[in-house]
Design a protein that fits this description.
Layout: H1 8-15, H2 21-38, H3 47-56, H4 60-68, H5 72-93, H6 114-124, H7 127-149, H8 151-158, H9 165-178, H10 181-212, H11 228-237
Helix pairs in contact: 1-2, 2-7, 3-5, 7-8, 7-9, 9-10, 10-11
Bound molecules: zinc ion (ZN) (2 copies).
Length: about 240
């Protein structure tokens, strides 16, 4: 049976005046994920969730966000048991035979070892990223669902301010997987167009922002240059400020 799709967050994000509605969706999800991890529900006190966060740990960005959240005891407790887990795993991995000195000819070859393999695996995981990813996929599916079902949404999509580079890629890549062949060409053509047009628009705003910093242009109107920089951060780096 097909999963029930919640279209409201998608419609809200596309209704917002921002440089990438998918960034907007991501930002909301990220807020929910941080709240779930360390917020008033205290999910970290539940055994199965704690087991998962102990194992996965947190990426640098989300560790910073969790630390900024006003629950220092919560983050301390989660970090302590995550560190217990790391100590256990590293101690186990470090029992493997130690790496040898490379021969002269193989100096540049990086030797794999259970210690570095464990750390590399651990660095790829993040409890908060995992929480976001699961929901994010269903949001992307819902964008395609709406595109097929609602002509109003197709119009809204075509009239949008486009996307950041990363989410342009996500939509481009996933379209053939989700869209009926009747819509695929129209979708991708529209997507390409709105991406380029709007990326150029922000690029031009940025150019004006730079010119306005030149004294010869100081009395000229700002046009759309004043907030060009934060909008360029969205387009280039998927950074969406509040
Ligand atoms: Zn984006
Ligand atoms: Zn993360």
């Amino acid at each position: 049976m097909k999963e029930e799709l919640n279209t409201i967050p998608i419609q809200d994000a596309f209704a917002r005046d921002c440089e990438c509605p998918v960034c907007e969706l991501y930002r909301k999800l990220e807020g929910n994920a941080i709240n779930f991890t360390i917020g008033p529900g205290a999910s970290y006190m539940e055994g199965d969730i704690r087991e998962q966060s102990d194992k996965e740990g947190f990426c640098q960005k989300h560790l910073k966000m969790l630390y900024a959240y006003p629950n220092k005891l919560g983050i301390a407790m989660m970090l302590k048991t995550h560190m217990d887990r790391t100590i256990h795993e590293v101690a186990k991995a470090s029992k493997a035979p130690l790496p040898h000195v490379n021969s002269v000819f193989k100096k540049k070859e990086v030797q794999s070892h259970p210690v570095t393999e464990y750390i590399e695996r651990a660095q790829k995981e993040c409890f908060v990223c995992g929480y976001i990813d699961r929901k994010f996929h269903s949001y992307i599916a819902t964008i395609f669902f709406l595109y097929e079902k609602e002509s109003d949404f197709r119009k809204q999509f075509a009239a949008s301010k486009g996307f950041c580079l990363e989410h342009y890629k996500v939509l481009f890549e996933k379209a053939p997987q989700y869209l009926h062949k009747k819509y695929i060409e129209e979708f991708l053509t529209t997507l390409n167009q709105i991406f380029i047009d709007n990326y150029k628009r922000v690029r031009d705003d940025l150019e004006w922002f730079i010119q306005k910093n030149d004294y010869r242009f100081k009395d000229e109107p700002w046009k759309n240059g004043r907030d060009a920089l934060p909008r360029a951060l969205t387009k280039v780096g998927s950074i969406l400020e509040e």
